[in-house]
Amino acid sequence: MKYLIPVLALFCSSMALASSGEQPHLQLTHNWVGYLAIAIFTAAYVLVILEEQLHLRKSKPVLLAAGLIWVLIAFAYGSAGDNHSAEMAIRHNFLEYAELFFFLLVAMTYINAMLERGVFDSLRDWLVLKGFSYRALFWLTGILAFFISPIADNLTTALIMCAVILAVGEGQPKFVAIACVNIVVGANAGGAFSPFGDITTLMVWQKGILDFAAFFKLFLPAVVNFVIPALIMQFALPAGRPEKTEHELIRMKTGGLVIVGLFLLTIITAVSFHNFLHLPPVYGMMTGLAYLKFFGYYLRKKGKAEIDKSDMPTGNVISDEFDIFDKVAKAEWDTLFFFYGVILAVGGLGFIGYLGMTSEFMYGELGATTANVLVGVMSAIVDNIPVMFAVLTMNPEMDELQWLLVTLTAGVGGSLLSIGSAAGVALMGQARGQYTFFGHLKWTPVIALGYAGSIWVHFLING
Q1: Which has more confidence, 292 or 59?
Q2: More reliable by pLDDT, 90 or 9
């Protein structure tokens, strides 16, 4: 743990410095301001790690930490007679956040619309009623998690697949535990080769570090990361198949598949804006939100002959009506505000100057490959969002091979521990008592084998 804070500081600081191209005028790394900022960030992140035990939303401590860190910076610069440097730096970090905020908000709105239309419930019920064996369900849910998470996100994907496992695995806690580990590994691996699969890959794409097509070079390494642990874990599964239960299929509501198609069209729009018009992808996503809003208008008019309420903030719940603002309201706001706190807090530490110190050690003395492999290990202990943002802030001199490596390791490294990814943390709550920290830890050596294998395959095919 003694190396955790310097490395975090390194990771957090470089983006603000590298993006603005300016070095801080004041040397605060050995000043009380810098020390206090590190202490505030550390305390906030301890509370984030203890979220489940304290029942304290992770956004609260980082929001406060971000504010306090920039208050310290502004005070230090104001005392030195510089009233503009801190303002310019925080505006730059806020713009970084704003682009990602609206991108994620549109994606979350689409996912919530699909949930409301029963798209994922229909998939779950189909799997339950097919009468697959435990081994078949283990592979099916893992493979589906791998291929759905690049389009949706690894958290939503893991929750859907876990619902399937809980429905068919009643009375088989051993099966539930192993299948949940497999889902976490599959969802995280699948999210690593797509800009839409994880917030870290999205950040890399939006910064223009890697082209959209470059992410798919990580497909085979991601497959290896998922398949190696799954091949070994399958031998611990119970034999037989779940008993069939009489259960009526949930019927997908009108427009469910159309919304899936509109979401894919929105992704194509965002990619086209970035690749052909050289505009930030977020503008393509916001254009895609208009597709959903117009379709929402169609659903409302088709359902009942009344005025268009699809652009009015949601009020009382009206049964079987499609309210676009209701989908926006159900976005993962805690995650979005957590992301704000991380970007501003890490950006503040970077502006103070801690990143340069750590960058020199990590990427200077250890080398890019070792540093990027360690990034994945850190992602298992600390959330991968601040870790990747720190790397981007540091902006080390690396070729595409190394940027792909750090994208891969930050995405799949969180699978090493159950607390290393949002998917793992969520499943510990959803399958409480069956999927646990120590139950996952038992399979960490096997997952680490997949982690090492994915890195080897990456260098083999992309090196």
Answers
A1: 292
A2: 90
Domain that includes residue 67, residue range: 30-81
**Calpha distance 23→10 (Å, rounded):** 15
Would you say residue 137 lies in a domain?
yes
Together in a domain, 202 and 144: yes
Mean pLDDT of 83-104: 87
The Cα 59–Cα 48 span in angstroms is: 8
Tell me which residue of 262, 231, 220 sits closest to 455, measured CA to CA. Answer: 220
* Paired tokens of 42: 């550390």
Q: How many other β-carbons are positioned within 10 Å of the β-carbon of residue 367?
A: 12
Nearest of 31, 47, 6, 1 to residue 341 by alpha carbon: 47
Task: Give the pair of three-digit tokens for residue 411.
Answer: 């995405």
Specify whether 132 is located in the same domain as 220.
yes
CB 51 within 8 A of CB 44: no
Over the stretch 254-299, which tens digit does the pLDDT of each residue have? 888 999 899 889 989 988 998 888 888 889 999 999 999 999 988 8
- Co-location of 128 and 150 in the same domain: yes
239 and 260 part of one domain: no
- Let me know if residue 260 belongs to a domain: yes
Domain count for the chain = 3
Q: Sign (positive/negative) of CA torsion 215, 220, 225, 226? A: positive
Are 179 and 239 within one domain?
yes
Spatial separation of the C-alpha atoms in residues 98 and 317, rounded to whole Å: 30
- Cα 329 from chain centre: 19
Q: Mapping DSSP to helix (H, G, I), strand (E, B) and coil, where does residue 243 land?
A: coil
pLDDT value at residue 311 = 52
Could you tell me if 132 and 194 lie in one domain? yes
* 219 belongs to a structural domain: yes
**Distance linking the first and last C-alpha atoms of the chain:** 32
- In three-state secondary structure terms, 149 is coil
201-205 LR contacts (CB < 8 Å, sep 24+): 201/407, 201/411, 202/100, 202/103, 202/104, 203/100, 203/388, 203/389, 203/392, 204/388, 204/392, 204/403, 204/407, 205/274, 205/281
Confidence of residue 397 (pLDDT cuts 50, 70, 90): confident
Pair (150, 203) in one structural domain: yes
pLDDT digits (tens, 9 = 90+) for 301-340: 877 434 444 554 544 444 456 777 777 777 678 878 888 8
C-alpha to C-alpha distance for 188 and 201, rounded to whole angstroms: 11
Regarding whether 140 and 234 lie in a shared domain, the answer is yes
Question: What's the burial of 71, exposed, middle or buried (CB within 10 Å: 0-12/13-18/19+)?
Answer: middle
- 3 assigned to some structural domain: no
pTM over 0.70: yes
